[in-house]
Amino acid sequence: MDININIKKNLQIRAFYLFFVIASIQLGIGILGVSRLIYLEVQQDAWISIVIAFFYVSLIIMVMLLILKQYENADIYGIQVDIFGKWIGKLFGTFFIFHFALSFFSILITYIEVIKVFIFPTVNDYILSFMLLCLVIYSVLGGIRVIIGVCVIFFFLSHWLLILLIQPALQMELTHLQPVFVTPITDLLKGARVTSYTFMGFEILFLIYPFILNKNKAKLPIFLGLGWTTFLLLLTTILVIGYFSFDQIERREWVLLGLFKIQSFAFIERFDYIVVAEWMMVVIPSLILLMWGITYGTKRLYQVPQRATLYTIAILCFIGSLFTNEHFQIQKVINWSSEYGFWLVYVYPLLLLPIVLIKKKWQKRKDGDHHVH
Amino acid sequence: MKRSRSPEKGSIFPIKVAELKKILQDQFNNNPDLSFSIYEKKDKKLAVFFIAYLVESEKIENFLLEPLLSKEIPWANTSIKNEIPLNGPEEVVNLKNILANLLLGKVYVYIEQEQTAIAYMLSKKEKRSLQQSETESLVLGPKIGFTESMVTNLNIVRWNIRSEDLVLERFMLGKREPREVRIIYLHSIANSDDVQTMRQRLTELDIDFVEDSAILMQYIEDSSSTIFPQFLSTELPDRFSYSINKGKIGVLVENSPTAIIAPTSFFSYFESTEDLYMRWNVGTFLRGLRFISFLLSTLLTPMYVAAATFHYEIIPPTLLVNLGLSRAAVPFPPILEALFLELMIELLRESGARLPTKVGQTIGIVGGVVVGTAAVQAGITSNVLIIFVALSALASFTAPNYLMGTTARIIRFPMIILAGFLGIIGILFGACFLVIHLLKLTSLGRPYLSPIYPLEMKDFNKVLFRLPNQFQYKRFKSYRPKDLIRYPKQKAKKKKDIDE
């Protein structure tokens, strides 16, 4: 297995698309309910937790970029094989694939549950899951360029939803956010930890980095993407806290969707139906990117054709979604995914960085010695 | 007989005139249209042969036979070439060549014992006169449309783009019946990769004959399974030359009044040259209207079906009462109701298109007014749905390109069915699928959804909306023209104060 990869010219992408990639994969199902989770931990200081989380994620992204920069054109699969050797490296790579698969599955079943709760309580799971997986397969078959195209277009097609938040914003009660800075720092950190599932997804950078055409310009779009996610998270959390009372927030599982119920027009009374359906355009890009991560990873590690993995994983997820339709099961999957992801995405890069740096330094010294003798 | 030089390879000359006649008659299966006349003077024999109805017979009589027979022109190749007052004499020796060119309207003169025959191009083609285009009508701007004659069309194009830069490459397509096809582009602007792709697709095409440009278009399109047209077809020379000037590639086919333009993006099917003739703000409004009407025509009826079947809550109470009243008498579920009405509109459109114009109008009135009212009174459909269906049918006719309008109408049917089964989720599924599908399409290898993806913000003002001319100084960047700048950027002087 090659550590550095040559990407064909027609597969390379311009750096500014990373903005759409990062924003699309982070905005998914998490943002629907995360405001409530943070609020339950830290009440009105929830926004501080989000800011803390933002800085921590920024740190992780810096670390990731630093790791990637040590190599010519490598992704995480190549780097791990280089550092830990063939067998352990591949095992660690498989951990990443498993992480993507778990996230993928958790997003899929959560969105199906949202549809069932809000629109069709009686619809069969397999129809919804089949439809979503069809869309995923259809776009992943198009390759990386189509996948990024889906991110870009669906980004534009879904962000009009923000207009619907104007009405609740006008009716907000600012006193709900006061007094500020009353929560102890440990609770704030706990609140930040809750956001880990929502912020997750930026680890796709480890895979997509070699595909970037102008790598020196990659930093800005990445942080803009992260900034955009954070901004939306802050916005919705403040709106949720300002609009709802404590009891109301506690009772609502996906509290953000509650906000969309308020706006009504002359010809449309309830927007939450439209929002839940429209959320498909928010969910599909993250599903597609994760699925691409799985198929691309298995191809890198085990030389399995991407098509074969795509169909296999889709069929497995389809079968899996039939058996996880109870609320507590879905919560369990989300918890696993967020726990597992926490260690892999938020802790592991910090451990990997020193090893990579030491190895590179050692290699350089060895090469230097070689030159002298 | 002395031979000054050995005959060229494949030459059938010199040959006895009677033998030549026999060979030709054999080749043309004794067709009576093959005119082969033999004249004798002073022991010399001369043959003139051509295919009747393909050539201008007055010219042959006045300028070829008259001087040859009555004047004292010596019967020899050199003197004929010099003294016959016809343009472009050509010496030919190859039988295959002669046979092929006879069918294109050439007239041959052969003097017995000469090494070559002399050919003149005297073809004549019956054609209709220039008319206004029927399928694409404009309120403003030039009105003439292309005709079936290639010569006329080339004449129009040459007069529209009077530039030495204009290249008109000639291809003969079709094994059995070769037909002339032209690739037209501006050499210093059009992307040479695109030109090469088009050239390659045409030369690699191995078919018996090309019936029409619409069929050629289907042969050389990027994807044949999609419902969306990938090449633009137009009858309007002004639209054609406008696209050529933008750096696109045009294709003209003999015997076809529609020209092909490539590469195109999804959005170019919604632009009309009229947008350019209007002021920029009016043009922007009209273009926006067409985008909205595409959405309306594909989504309006499905939305009704979804709301009336599953999501009553979406409809505001006041509207719901009206809707309930008008639907109270209807015994069918909304999906059947909608499909029935849509089918009726399609029938009206199709019968209107097939019938002669006068009868067509009557059918429109009878169908639209009488059947529509009767359907409501009979309790088959609701009033509200009739409005929606009529609106979306109207909207689908706003697309300046007929192919895209048809596509919009057809997409509606699967959308209605999806909405009938899965409500708004079904509609969103259909919409997502369509968007992904559009993303995967290419036109001549260029992405179909440019400039949105690949994102080129600077092209937005040419495609999605229009800006005043001082912002239009660049060409469409997404297709990578060789020369990006149309004219130097002009800046209007700014006034510093009110009264200056």
Automatic annotation (TrEMBL), chain A:
DNA damage among keywords: no
Pfam families associated with the record: Spore_permease
Keyword Transmembrane attributed: yes
TM helices/strands, residue ranges: 16-40, 46-68, 88-112, 118-141, 146-166, 194-213, 220-246, 273-296, 308-328, 340-358
Main subcellular location of this protein, as a coarse class: membrane
NCBIfam families per record: 2A0309
Name the record gives this protein: Spore gernimation protein
From TrEMBL, chain B:
Spans traversing the lipid bilayer: 288-308, 328-347, 359-378, 384-403, 415-439
Keyword Chaperone: no
Membrane topology value: Multi-pass membrane protein
Cellular component, GO annotation: plasma membrane
GO BP annotations listed: spore germination
Domain of life the protein comes from: Bacteria
Keywords associated with the record: Membrane, Transmembrane, Transmembrane helix
Main location: membrane
InterPro entries tied to this protein: Spore_Ger, UPF0353/GerABKA_families
Pfam families named among the record's database cross-references: GerA
Family affiliation: Belongs to the GerABKA family.
PANTHER family: LEUCINE ZIPPER PROTEIN 4, SPORE GERMINATION PROTEIN
Protein name: Spore germination protein
Organism, as annotated: Oceanobacillus piezotolerans
